[in-house]
Amino acid sequence: MSEQRWDRTAGERPRRVVVVGAGMAGVQTAVALREQGFAGPVTLIGAEPHQPYDRPPLSKAVLLGKAEDSAFDVDFEALDITLRLGLDVTGLRAAAHELDTPEGPVPYDVLVLATGAEPLVLPGSEGVPGVHLLRTLDDAERLRPVLERQHDVVVVGAGWIGAEFTTAARAAGCAVTVVEAAGRPLAGTLPAEVAAPMAAWYAESGAALLTGARVARVEPGAVHLTDGRAVPAGAVIVGIGARPATGWLAGSGIALGPDGSVTADSSLRTSLPDVYAVGDCASFPSARYGERLLVHHWDNALQGPRAVAAAVADGLPRTYDPVPYFWSEQFGRFVQYAGHHAGADTLLWRGDPAEAAWTVCWLRAGVLVAVLAVGRPRDLAQGRKLVEAGARIDPVRAADPSVPLRSAVL
Ligand SMILES: Cc1cc2nc3c(=O)[nH]c(=O)nc-3n(C[C@H](O)[C@H](O)[C@H](O)COP(=O)(O)OP(=O)(O)OC[C@H]3O[C@@H](n4cnc5c(N)ncnc54)[C@H](O)[C@@H]3O)c2cc1C
């Protein structure tokens, strides 16, 4: 049986798959291997001590105490997946096909890197009491009492995490000031005209958004800006981005990019034999978009593992070239995005951004390449399929919010 053949090494010993990182991408890899019929040993190693959990609820229900945790509903024992939690992998010796850990070497036949990303630290803020990051369950648990005590909070960074944290902190009754170095929220992600209505959401929620504001230093109780202003801060939450957690791979021979990502190929294989990379730690070349993508969103940590698991299970590499998708819940709105708008030549509005629900479509040479939907999930669902299909659309019909997006196809 082909299943048997691919589960075994040449010497008939079952191939051992080891996955490093027990977040979304690591767990999905292990589960997808079983779904694909891989019957050999699968070991999932994670540095955090907690049962593997999902991150999006950390800045939403978990932060507000509406959910205790967000553990994945996966029966690892029933799937015969060996979990090794609270174990930090410190090195990779590719020639020996071994990982280094404080509990001794771990051998592998196939290795999947799924170590995710680490939040960037605001220089000079390390060790200052009251300064927080929001990446882990422990971070969210440390932040819950901050919200409960209704501290004056300063959020550094008006990105996705900053917006979601601000939403939760306002809901909890905190006074919130958001300090953003760029001239608008989400400056690295969205064009100015699309981000402009989002800036208004901060004010509407009662949060103060200071744009063009740079942090000079953080002291207990205050954030000092470079223009001399001091903002009182019972707590400071830093949300200024994340970087692939790949420091432990230095010297291993795995190729890394300038952004710290494992530079995987179009099938998510790394520069070393028998080693794949998935999720937030890996970038991949997209033929669809003609550039290398590093995607830090949940859907990428679901789809990439499926491609890798299929390849490991039957030995046939799968090309991974997704249409990226993500969502965010902020200021009472459901924001969704599919595609990649770099290189678009036309931007269309469907609806009025002053209203509760609206959509933006990006076109390139008449083809829909990206969709951002605020409170219009049907636009997103239809738009995502059209982006995947490379559909040409009629810009006049697409700009009419009463016309279903799929009816605008030429
Ligand atoms: C607060 C928050 C809210 C989010 N909300 C959304 C959202 O609404 N929508 C959306 O699309 N995306 C969201 N995301 C992004 C999404 O959660 C990530 O893209 C996804 O978690 C990536 O999964 P991953 O498995 O690649 O990485 P991670 O989830 O970071 O998991 C990696 C794991 O590897 C472990 N690890 C790292 N190094 C080692 C090592 N050397 N040895 C052993 N283990 C190691 C880490 O401890 C970690 O547990 C959010 C992220 C955060 C932090």
Automatic annotation (TrEMBL):
Keyword match Nucleotidyltransferase: no
Requisite cofactors: FAD
Keywords: FAD, Flavoprotein, Oxidoreductase
Coiled-coil zones: none
InterPro entries: FAD-oxidoreductase/Apoptosis (IPR050446), FAD/NAD-bd_sf (IPR036188), FAD/NAD-binding_dom (IPR023753), FAD/NAD-linked_Rdtase_dimer_sf (IPR016156), Reductase_C (IPR028202)
All residue ranges annotated as the FAD/NAD(P)-binding domain in the record: 16-302
Domain Reductase C-terminal, chain residue ranges per copy: 325-408
Keyword Transferase: no
Name of one Pfam family that matches: Reductase_C
Domain of life: Bacteria
Stated name of the protein: NADPH-dependent 2,4-dienoyl-CoA reductase/sulfur reductase-like enzyme
